[in-house]
Amino acid sequence: MQNLAQTLTAQAINASLADLLLTLADTSKAISQAVRHGALAGVLGATEQENVQGETQKKLDVITNDMLKDALKADGNVRGLASEEEDYVVEVSKDGKYLVCFDPLDGSSNIDINSLVGTIFSVLPAPAGELTEQSFLQKGRDQVAAGYVLYGPSTMMALTTGNGTQFFTLDPNSGEFLLTQDQVTITPDTAEFAINMSNQRFWEAPMQTYIADLLIGELGPRERNFNMRWIAAMVGDVHRVLCRGGIFTYPTDNKNPQKPYKLRLMYEANPMAWLVEQAGGKASTGYQTILDVQPTAIHQRVAVILGSANEVDTCLSYHGQDYSQEPQVD
Ligand code: AFP
């Protein structure tokens, strides 16, 4: 079986980007070890700190963030980095060709219950000149690589460099990520949806109607029944969608008018949207294709509706002109 390095060579990925992706892969192996040790390593539980999102940082959030920062600083190919756990962008090397945005441990609320967590990364070209937050504010369409590593029963990487979406499985014996699926393809139709139903009363009317029709199933306009899953870790829900189809959405809600969206654009929505599109799926904010959103801030959030192409289209058809007025966040 082909390993990650051999796959990158076969895709004719330039040496600098290939080295960077191998650094991310090697770091994810160390993160996988840290996650697996859990309570035995005293890494569970929360710190006293809050991140820029106002969320209490788990010990593993901080540990994994430091692991990635240290690895990327030593890599030599990185101009700068942005992390969910860092208030500001971090300059790394004036010679680096790439910017890396990452969520070091997505789903960290799952850590203490031994449920799925993962690392999400997005690689952008580094523009010339001084490094500022503006350097990172490039559309998802401009990514040169994107992926995640899922720390589940097996440790798996999903990766795209624009040559489709590939799955790699970490071989515990060799320590190599081996290519286990070359061209991941999302089924265009599905009978499975993923949403946090507890927010139902806060959604906008079109999403309430769309989900209500899924729940009515064969008795309603969809004329068939649907199943629901919610892992509370985007990395787990998106992996399921890539594996067997589905629609995943964290839509606009008015639970907190100052925060109508939950998921972060630069290091959650954009990398996942590219993986999904490269697998034949669709990814929308409800107002526009996620990969075409012009970022305005490194920690900006967006609504996300992604997965099986025909089901995403059906969901969007409920929105029509209702979604023409995107909520404005001060
Ligand atoms: P945490 O990393 O803080 O657990 O958040 C995970 C996440 O950003 C995303 O991965 C999940 O899909 C979503 O939040 C879950 O949100 P709810 O906890 O509101 O269901």
Using only CA atoms, what is the Rg?
19 Å
Topology as H/E string? Answer: HHEEHEEEEHEEEEEHEHEEHEEEH
Unreliable runs? 321-325
Query: What is the helix tally?
Result: 8
Q: Summarize model confidence as the mean pLDDT.
A: 94
Give me the side-by-side strand order of the main sheet: 4-3-5-6-7-8-9-10
The CATH homologous superfamily of the largest domain is named: Fructose-1,6-Bisphosphatase, subunit A, domain 1
Shape: globular
Small-molecule binders: 1,6-di-O-phosphono-alpha-D-fructofuranose
Number of strands: 17
Number of domains: 2
Helix content: 25-40%
Main sheet: strands, sense, barrel: 8 strands, mixed
The SS-based structural class is alpha+beta
* CATH fold type of the largest domain: Fructose-1,6-Bisphosphatase, Chain A, domain 1
CATH architecture of the largest domain, please?
2-Layer Sandwich
What's the CATH class of the largest domain, please? Alpha Beta
Quick synopsis:
The chain has 330 residues and is of the alpha+beta class. The protein contains 8 helices and 17 strands. The chain has helices at 4-10, 15-37, 59-75, 133-136, 205-216, 234-244, 265-278, 309-317; strands at residues 46-50, 56-58, 78-83, 90-91, 98-106, 117-125, 145-151, 155-160, 165-170, 177-181, 192-194, 227-228, 247-250, 263-264, 282-284, 301-302, 304-307.
